[in-house]
Specification:
Number of strands: 11
Structural class: alpha+beta
Number of helices: 7
Low-confidence stretches: none
Mean pLDDT: 92
Radius of gyration: 18 Å
Helix content: 25-40%
Order of helices and strands: EEEHEEEEHEHHEEEHHH
Length: 196
């Protein structure tokens, strides 16, 4: 049971569990990607509220074992105050969506993070965030936040780039810079670009 305070003063009670079997509730995949997961409507005022609460999502047949943490818990996790309980960790809703997109496409999240790392190296900035949004017609679609205020950048990367990195992956994972964001349960280039 979680309690969500509304701006009107009402407290919304939800029976959302702290562990969710996605294989038993397959509609949650779409809800997560569409932004409807953890969204509640206040019965008093009608406001729609979006919250982030820690949750363990899993789908054994699909190989999904994901610990979601709210963005506000990033520093607690990175400092070791929150211990991982799943194979993978996503911090903040955009990372959750990305991990679900990756799982749905049966991609390797380490390769996606290497692609993002290379994009960030070219950008030469630490204040942008990149997320895999979708895969369309053999193209990986990345959304780039922070290039310009109130604008979303889009980068289309051919699937061949992914396949090329896949063939080089074992060697790349020996690189100390790559190890910084591909080892352990929190596989995210944000580990090195957002820690500063």
């Amino acid at each position: 049971m979680i309690e969500i305070p509304c701006h009107c003063g009402n407290i919304i009670e939800s029976d959302m569990e702290s562990q969710i079997d996605l294989s038993a509730e397959s509609s949650l995949y779409a809800k997560i990607v569409d932004g409807d997961f953890m969204k509640f409507r206040c019965p008093e005022c009608g406001n729609e509220l979006k919250t982030e609460v820690p949750v363990h999502l899993y789908d054994k047949p699909a190989g999904v074992d994901l610990q979601f943490l709210p963005e506000l818990e990033r520093s607690n996790f990175l400092s070791g105050n929150i211990k991982p309980i799943a194979v993978r960790v996503a911090i903040g809703y955009p990372e959750l969506v990305e991990k679900i997109v990756i799982a749905g496409a049966k991609l390797d999240d380490r390769i996606i993070e290497i692609i993002k790392f290379r994009m960030l190296e070219k950008a030469e900035r630490n204040d942008i965030r990149i997320y895999l949004s979708s895969i369309e017609n053999g193209t990986l679609i990345f959304h780039i936040h922070g290039l310009k205020p109130d604008q979303l950048g889009v980068s289309r990367i051919p699937e061949n780039t992914y396949k090329k990195i896949e063939t080089e992956l074992d060697g790349l994972l020996e690189n100390d810079d790559i190890k910084l964001f591909t080892e352990g349960p929190y596989v995210s280039v944000s580990r090195i670009y957002l820690e500063d």
